[in-house]
Structure prediction request, 251 residues.
Amino acid sequence: MLTEKKGPVLYITLNRPEVLNALNMEMEKALMDALRRFQDDNELLVAILTGSGGRAFSAGMDLKEYDQQGSEHRPEELSRFADLGIWKPIIGAVDGHCVAGGFELALQCDIRIATSQSTFGLPEPRWNLMANYFGCHNLSRMIPLGEALYIQLTGNRISADQALRCGLVHSVHPDRDALMKEADDIAGAITLCSPLAIQTIKQVVIKGRNLPVEESYRMGEQMMQRLTQTEDAVEGPRAFAEKRRPIWKMR
Prediction:
């Protein structure tokens, strides 16, 4: 696992290119540790998650390790990804194969972009396995149900263009350089926004979609009220009136 801080952006790179960035227990733990540090570092506002080598974002679970260790010895690190409560945005920059657990990982990013050679799939049923509940459930709510069922029931991979067509990725790029430039541009746009507003929006969206409409509305109203009572709620309109960039205090 490689991590690099550049200003308010954290770059996280899955770094086992010799095995298509397959997720063994060591890598899963390192990834979760990196995400916890990202969550706790007030200087970091957005993360970009990618894979090294150019062949794969991640081919998913390291099945050789799984076969040797057995499922009873494997901690469910990645299934707790959503439970960390990370309200800062995470961009998934997919370059190459993004399948099985690697696809499930990408689904937990807030924005996904890809290179044209990338593929996406959940082949678990071919090995008498299935994607974890979060992967199955989240995919079916992210893209049309028919598209989600096709991916899950056939085990077939779809191309980057197909992923773009069904809304799984935001954009497709010719090569890694163009991919990472777009990731940087998206991260840059996010950092122009109020961190408090961004994190509130993400909470409202993620928490609210699992609640009844009335309860979701009440939660959103309460969070918006808290947001309007912050110092940054005064700074934003003032900066606009003074035609300058806001100076966010995150309070």
User: Anything to note?
Assistant: Residues 193 and 246 are 9 Å apart (CA to CA). The longest strand covers residues 9-14. The chain is about 45% helix and 15% strand. The radius of gyration is 19 Å.
